[in-house]
Amino acid sequence: MSTPENPETVLPHIRPEIAVLPPYKQGTQASAEAFKLSSNENPFDPLPGVLDAILAQTAVNRYPDATAGRLRAALAERFGVHIDAVHIGAGSVSIISQLMLAVAAPGDEVVFAWRSFEAYPGLALVAGATPVQIPLTEDARHDLPAMAAAITERTRAVIVCSPNNPTGPVVTQAEFDAFLAQVPPTVLVILDEAYIEFVTQQDAVDGARMLAAGAPANLVVLRTFSKAYGLAGLRVGYAIGHPRVLDAARSTGIPLSVTAQAEAGALASLEAEGELLERVGDLARRRDALAAALREQGWRVPDAQGNFVWLGTGAETMAAAETFMADGLVVRPFDGEGIRISVGEHMSVEKVLRTARGIVGNLPEGHAARALP
Ligand SMILES: *Cc1c(COP(=O)(O)O)cnc(C)c1O
Fold first, then answer.
1. Which residue's CA is the nearest one to ligand 1's atom 3?
2. pLDDT tens digits for range 28-57
3. One fold for both 16-45+274-362 and 48-271?
4. pLDDT of residue 29
5. What is the percentage of the chain residues whose pLDDT exceeds 90?
6. Domain boundaries, the chain
7. Is 113 in the pocket of ligand 1 (CB under 6 A)?
8. Would you say residue 1 has pLDDT above 70?
9. How far is ligand 1, taken at its centre, from the CA of residue 232, in Å?
10. How far is CA 344 from CA 36, 43, 201, 230, 274, in A?
């Protein structure tokens, strides 16, 4: 039998740009006692009514509604847009994939900040396009003027992530307005707002509000039920944008990917707005307290507006991540760059602080992760 290791095995032709991609690597699975702070998941149980709504969808022998019409209608009403200006996907990552396939082909370019969401480069490459990564500023924010300057006649899409995963800062509304004015109307602008519910900064960009007020047709806003709503396991996210642009995404997507259970869970979550806001408020306060305490320990923590904080541990990243792991804290290291820590259970925050104090104390003088004296 042929095995993966056997060099004589003849494999079918695989697109060379795909063959070199690393297989998807999930955040380390946490042991039962450890706190899993590596995937920006919500530590709370599902909102009231959500599990009942999911369990009520018993006709699993039937395909779901291909357009998730009830959820689209609810979101359209909430955001004051036409129902065709809403598109549901099996997670907003799948909508990014659909949009990439719809706009970008070999030879085309997709511009985004780096470091930003890990999925962006792979999704652009799978579409055949070339990722163009624009370094973040010194304070871990998008460099929007540099991103605008990187747009060429081959650019088909620009992705802006606010708040930025994994570093935390938002793009302000004024910054985004100025940026959008510089992007040609033929270039798709994807504004990824996966963490917008956690944002407390008053002047942050709000793409849904822009679209309700009548934004240019090249703007698509992405949101998800995975983070604030705590439905990461159900796989449901949405886009708001021009119906014709979303039609293109609907055309490249795999039909019937959003299950009836996911749609029902999302609808029930929308109805539990009061509890949602309470939990999101809790997590945002917990995040602010965590960031403040880390800064007090001597860490330089970028503005944290999602449900996570960023430590720019640089060359010390893997060693620092191991120290967290050894203390039962599963964090997300990006080798050579830094560590992202999700805001999790109340108890996890204290533990993070205890471990972080020891790590910062051992960083060399003048290390970039340390606050400037
Ligand atoms: C988590 C996340 C998403 C959404 O993921 P789904 O679970 O696929 O909805 C999208 N963008 C960013 C930046 C994220 O961190």
1. 194
2. 666 778 999 999 999 999 988 999 999 999
3. no
4. 67
5. 89
6. 16-45+274-362, 48-271
7. no
8. no
9. 9
10. 8, 5, 21, 12, 20
The residue whose CA has the least distance to atom 1 of ligand 1 is 194
Using the CB atoms, write b or e for 54-83: b if 16+ within 10 Å.
beebeeeeeebbebbeebbebbbeebebee
Over residues 14-30, the pLDDT tens digits come to: 998 888 888 766 666 66
What CATH number is given for 48-271 in this structure? 3.40.640.10
List of residues 6+ apart from 372 with CB closer than 8 A: 300
Instruction: Say if ligand 1 is within 6 A of residue 192 CB.
Output: yes
**H helical segments located in 257-373:** 260-271, 273-297, 317-326, 346-362
Q: Which atom of ligand 1 approaches the CA of 226 most closely? A: 7
**Closest alpha carbon to 178 in 150, 138, 205, 211:** 205
**Which of 98, 192, 198, 225 has most ligand 1 atoms within 8 Å of CB, for mutation?**
192
Ligand 1 pocket: which of 227, 308, 340 to mutate (most atoms <8 Å of CB)?
Answer: 227
93 Cβ closer than 6 Å to some ligand 1 atom: yes
Distance 104 CA to ligand 1 centre (A): 20
Domain 16-45+274-362: state its class. Answer: alpha beta
pTM of the predicted structure, to 2 decimals: 0.96
Q: Is the pLDDT of residue 373 over 80?
A: no
Mean pLDDT across 173-197: 98
Tell me the pLDDT tens digit for each residue of 259-273: 999 999 999 999 998
CA distance 83 to 234: 22
Any atom of ligand 1 within 6 Å of the Cβ of 283: no
pLDDT at residue 7, as a whole number: 79
- Tell me, using a 6 A CB cutoff, whether residue 95 lines ligand 1: no
